[in-house]
Amino acid sequence: MGANVTVNLGVEMTANSLSLWAPAKVNLYLEIVGDRPDGFHELSTIFQSIGLMDRVTVAVHSGPAKISVDCPHPLVPNDQTNLAYRAAELMVQAFPDAASRQSTIDIAIAKNTPVAAGLAGGSSNAAAVLVALNMLWELGLTHQALQDLAAKLGSDISFCVSGGTALATGRGEVLDPLPSVSDLWVVLGKYDNLSISTPWAYKRYRELFEGEYARDANTQTSRHDQVRSGAMVRLLSQLAQGSRDNLDKIRALLRNDLERAVLPDHNKIKTLRDCFQGQAPLGAMMSGSGPTVFGIAADGANAKLIQSAIRQYIPDPDLSLWTAPFIAQGVHLAPNTV
Ligand code: ATP
Question: Taking a C-beta distance cutoff of 8 angstroms, is the pair 325, 51 a contact?
Fold first, then answer.
């Protein structure tokens, strides 16, 4: 282990290795606005970080130029296709001097977030590697600079760097932070043997609804403006200020356009979503491209009650259920690193 250094969080840590929490996200709102010249979809989405987190440990040392990933989860690749690997590769390319001093990078991922679940699990792992290497190599990059790098790797990774509550446009990488809502909870449900590919979900949406797309930039901008000044953002701002007067309105404001593409082909997810809607008075929705379904709960005790009610309705052992609070941060230091 090397000498201790002070990094921009103002804490002492061992120079060669650190562990970070990489939180998952849900989409409280996801509107597909239209097409983009790059072939992606133009989105207006509201991300919310939740306390379901992977632990990502990054170690750097001098030695052969090599990146390794160790994640024991059967669905996560340990090769160059792992998003965490690609994040390290990008940092090596962008900062060759720092990389040449400590060119062996070992990444260990302890997975708690389900894979291919619409919760940005891989994206948050990649964000953790960007944040970790910024600290370990003492690059002094701002969140904005890290988010610009993140956008080169994938659409959700920029948000995962900063986390909290944010409105995102573009492919999901143009971020407008919102006041953090941190005293609500979610109940999450996912069938272990059911995964949805994000590219498939968007392709299916295009096949079905391309005729509705806003194509010109002005119309797209005006859709973003309507979301930015719309009822969901107003309600979240009230909640962030501690007022729960209109909390019950959240049920009608949750939106995910991808449900229109995914649910008709996946009756199991639709049934699960209906069950969540029945048990969670504050509403339920599929997250991102699915197949995870989440329900909003007023607090942790309420989340546990909803979880056990859903378990009673669907005793299928293939269904995993979690509860997690909304949290106000993205990637952050895990205990034992300070
Ligand atoms: P998003 O919500 O950003 O679309 P997701 O939650 O639906 O992401 P991921 O968990 O990121 O999906 O996994 C998508 C695919 O990426 C999986 O098939 C998996 O094999 C691959 N993958 C690559 N790296 C990782 C990683 N570090 N963690 C999880 N999956 C990864």
Answer: yes
